[in-house]
Amino acid sequence: MDNCIFCKIINKEIPSEFIHEDNEIIAFNDINPAAKHHVLIVPKKHIPTINDLNESEEDELLVGKMTVIARNIAKERELSGYRLQFNVGRSAGQIIFHIHLHLTSDG
Ligand code: AMP
Ligand code: ZN
Known about the structure:
It is a single chain. By secondary structure, the protein is α+β, with helices and mostly antiparallel strands. 24% of the residues lie in helices and 22% in strands. The protein has a single domain, classed as HIT family, subunit A (2-Layer Sandwich), CATH 3.30.428.10. The chain has helices at residues 5-10, 57-76; strands spanning 18-21, 25-29, 37-43, 83-85, 101-105. A hairpin with a 7-residue loop joins β2 (25-29) and β3 (37-43). The relative contact order is 0.24. The site of zinc ion has 6 residues, from α1. Zinc ion binds next to α1.
């Protein structure tokens, strides 16, 4: 999607260090971390918000896979606890309109 910063990161038009990459999902550090660990888990498919998810097996599996990848990153880092968050809509603080799961933890 033109003018989407996360699509540009996915397409490597903006350099970023990937923590995870597979055919459907990438993960990278948040540029403005709100905790010691702040990772964004992002699908390669451009979906503006959680409200735009299709009730299709494809989208349901995609969001499930994002959660499993977040869990794997938390496990690799041996985090004792962590938070997973989707901000949905401007009034909830969403500023990038390409869905992403925040993984935050202080360790
Ligand atoms: P949200 O408020 O849920 O839309 O979250 C967007 C997040 O993306 C914020 O925490 C930003 O700090 C982060 N962010 C914005 N631009 C970049 C970037 N170029 N690389 C990494 N994280 C970014
Ligand atoms: Zn996008």
